[in-house]
Amino acid sequence: MSAAWKKILVPVAIKLNSQIHVSAIRDAFILSFPIVMASSLIILINFAILSPDGFIASILHLGTIFPHLAEAQQIFTPVMNGSVNIMAILITFLVARNMAISYQQDDLLCGLTAIGAFFVVYTPYTIIDGQAYLATKYLGPQGLFVAIIVALISSEVFCRLARNPRVTITMPAAVPPAVARSFKVLLPIFFVMIFFSILNYLLTRISPNGLNDLIYTLIQAPLKDMGTNIVTVLVLGLVANFLWVLGIHGPNTVAAIRETIFSEANLEISPMPPRMAAPGERRTPLHGLVSTMRLPTAAGRV
Asked: What is the pTM of this model?
C-alpha cells in the first residue's frame, strides 16, 4: 500500500517542490523569517519585561522599582515598522528575486521592479485637507496576497523580456558595469511599469480603492478565515505528516500553501503597543503616511 502511494505522490511532490513559482513563494517566507522572529522577540521584551503588568515584570515587581517602566516601551515599539508592518514589501522583493534567480536573470533589479509595480497598483492616495496621504494598511500582512501576485507577474514579464536580446540594451565595454547593468534591462522595466499602470487603471474602474482592496475582500479575507479554522490546521498537518511517512519532506511541500493562508493571521496576533504621546503632543502622520489599522493598547486590547 505504501509503495503504491509513493509511486503516485512522490513524483507529484517532487514536481511541486521544484516548481519555480511555488519555491519562490516558499523561499521568500523562509528568508523573511529572521526579520519577523527578531522583531517578535523584541516586542516580547516590551510586553513581558517593560510592561508593568507583563509576566516577568509582575514577578520581579519591576513596575514598583521603576515607576516609569512603561515609557521604556517607546524604545522598541518602532521595530514593528521595520518588519511586520512592511511585510508585503519584503515578500514582493523576495518572491521576484527568487523568480529571477530561477530564470538566471538580474535578481536585484527584478526585485526592485516588483516593488515599483506593487506601488503602481497600490491603494490610491487619500486627500485630507488638501494633502495626499497613503494608507499603510496593505503594506503589512493584509497586502501579502497582492504582493505575491504582483511579484510573480512582474518577475515573469521582466525575466521573459530580459532574456530577449531584441528588448535589451547592450552598452559598450567602456561603460561602467553598474550603468551597463541598469541599461540592459531598461526596456523590460519600462514594459512592466506600462503593464501594471494599464492594469491599475482598469482595476480602479471596478474597485475605486484599487487592487489591494479588491483582492483582500474576494480572496485574502476568506483565506484568513481558513487560517483561523481548526479544520484547515488539521488537514495541512495530516497532509504534511502523511508525506513524511512516504519519505517526502511534508512541511516543505505544503509550505507555499501554508504560509499564504496563515501568514496574515500569525502576524496580526503579534502585539504592538502604540507610541505614547508626550503631554500636549499632537499626533501627525509620519512622512505623509496615514495608517488605517487600529493598534492594540499596552494591555494588548483594541
From this structure: 0.70
Main-chain phi, psi angles of 103, to 5 degrees: -90, 0
The packing angle between helices 230-245 and 2-18, to 10°, is: 110
Low pLDDT (below 50) residues in the chain: 1, 246, 270-302
Q: Where are the domains of the chain?
A: 3-268
Report pLDDT for 263: 61
Rg of the chain over Cα atoms, rounded to whole angstroms, equals 23
The pLDDT value recorded for residue 51 is: 73
- For residue 190, the tally of other CB atoms under 10 A from its CB is 13
* Residues 93, 255 contacting (CB under 8 angstroms): no
The whole-number pLDDT of residue 160 equals 93
